Amino acid sequence: MAAPPTDLPWWKTAVIYQIYPISFFDSNGDGIGDLNGIASKLDYLKDLGVDVLWLSPIYRSPLADMGYDISDYQNIDSRYGTLEDWDNLLKGVHERGMKLMMDLVVNHSSDEHDWFMQSRLDDSNPKRDWYIWRPPRYDPSGRRQPPNNWKAVFQVSLVAGSAWEYDEKTSEYYLHLYLTKQPDLNWDNIEVRDAVWNLMKFWLDRGCDGFRMDVINIISKAEGLPDAPVTVPEEPYQHASIHFANGPRVHEYLREMNEKVLSKYDLITVGETPFTHDTEELAAYVLPKNKELNMVFQFELMDIDSPLEGEDAVPLIYKPWKLSDLKDIVRRWQTFKRDEGFWNAVFTENHDHARSVSRFGDDSTDEWRARSAKMLALLQVTQGGTQFVFQGQELGLKNFPRTWGIEEYKDIASQNYWNKILSKRTSESGGAEVDMSDVLDGFAKKARDHARVPMQWNASSNAGFTTGTPWMRVNEDYEVWNAENQVEDENSVRAFWRKLLKIRKDNVVLMAGDFVELVHDHERIFAFVRRLGDQVALVVLNFGNEDVIIQLDSPTLSWSSLQLEIGNYHNKGEVPIADGTLEMKGFEGRLYLFR
Ligand code: GLC
Ligand code: CA
């Protein structure tokens, strides 16, 4: 067995807290969260055990995709504040011994970025080749068609679903894998890459400590931009990730980024890598010998309750999931290429997914909600890798109610999907009113909007998020479920997270130990052992609301040497395991450590 590493780099031991700035805290009453609001909550975060803040984009942006559409990479959107506010926030973060990570969104810019405005002017403009322009194709009847059949990820409607937008001015199409307002940059052009290295250096030289890199695995597209295979024959445009994810030059570009920028600083880097199920593909970004990124966000767990169309998950439809699938995913990644230095980024929530307690736990009563949120905290924090907590996750925040109508779903991805299904059904019904309740069921479970409602700070109006009118409706449970209540309550979900993060810090086995699963075939219980040198941790989790008696079996474990460290029913030192038998209550979770 490997000896405990004593010299893990800071980004491996760190707890990262993701802030969705528009919904975190509003300091000036305009209904929009801002940098000064974040700066005023640093003590709350420090107290929770956070080491690094990751800010979702705060750059100048028309907010077509909530800031993942940037019109000036070197400025702060005035709704969030100023560069001076950012410097001030950074100072507060550093003074508390924490670090600050920015979101780097460079697969695409906004169409309102000066680069794109120049690029579209005429086809001899020096910035023309900074984006991906192609002439039309013509069908047999002479009608103009996009250069290929790729579908945009946030497709607008059945007919308007192409990843290409025609631009009258120069009679060519530009590529946008996401919204028409998010044109893809042409990474094959070295000037584009240099511009990206420069904007990264701008933030690093200002004191930023790292980057989360948005959809970084789609920056290199397949040679010749070939048509995608037809997986949904009734639609004109097709899922094309096989031609744009993990493309031919992506590793070359990331190595160049590493050599020219990353290696010159002491940073945390995490790449977002959707559309990928092949573990080998993802390893390539992370293995230290390749000199690319520290880690990636893979989406195996996030896609577990989504049906597939071709290779691509359809995120807004709910598909029931099985515990055995969840176990397979966790085990696969926890044991993946450890000997080659693969390192995990562990998360169960972010701004693109609904609340974990509503997906993987039970939010039907306050009691089950608190129990299952704590059980899920155990699932996450006891996994090896760097920990990522999304704002409000530490409070057990849940999805907003099914009774809210489509008008409360502000996300363009939700809106576009709704409109696509609505127009399809309306045309099928010949214009008669159609039933959309099943779509709303899916949204109530899965939409990104649930993660984007205002943070719940206290029981005052608008959950203490703003004194004005919040940009998005506040969830209805804030009078009970809020940070202030939970900070005061030693049995709260937040108190549990706080203890757990501290336990992780004190026990390196939880960060870097190996991983062996027990009772694999059990449908309710997920149990695993982590070891590092002579340190041992045993985790047992009940994923249902019924009591379960479980007999664990492990030839190498001495049950009597294990002591309960933390649980969501019992206190430290209680419920010893005599002979490997445990009586687990509904959604019970326990962590035992070797004594
Ligand atoms: C990433 C972001 C998501 C955004 C998309 C397009 O997946 O996390 O919020 O919509 O990229 O930029
Ligand atoms: Ca504000």
Key words describing this protein structure:
binds alpha-D-glucopyranose, Immunoglobulin-like, 8-stranded parallel sheet, globular, 595 residues, TIM Barrel, binds calcium ion
Secondary structure elements and pairings:
Layout: H1 10-13, E1 15-19, H2 35-39, H3 42-48, E2 52-55, E3 59-60, E4 72-76, H4 83-95, E5 99-104, H5 114-119, E6 133-134, E7 137-138, E8 144-145, E9 164-167, E10 172-175, H6 190-205, E11 210-213, H7 241-244, H8 250-260, E12 268-272, H9 279-286, E13 295-297, E14 308-309, E15 312-313, H10 323-334, E16 345-346, H11 356-359, H12 366-381, E17 386-390, H13 412-428, H14 437-446, H15 483-488, H16 493-506, H17 508-512, E18 514-518, E19 525-532, E20 535-542, E21 548-551, E22 562-567, E23 581-584, E24 589-594
Parallel strand pairs: 1-2, 1-17, 2-5, 5-11, 11-12, 12-13, 16-17
Antiparallel strand pairs: 3-4, 6-10, 7-8, 9-10, 14-15, 18-19, 19-20, 20-24, 21-23, 22-24
Helix pairs in contact: 12-16
Bound molecules: alpha-D-glucopyranose and calcium ion.
Calcium ion (CA) binds near residues 28, 30 and 32.
Protein name: Glycosyl hydrolase family 13 catalytic domain-containing protein
GO molecular function, one term: sucrose alpha-glucosidase activity
Family: Belongs to the glycosyl hydrolase 13 family.
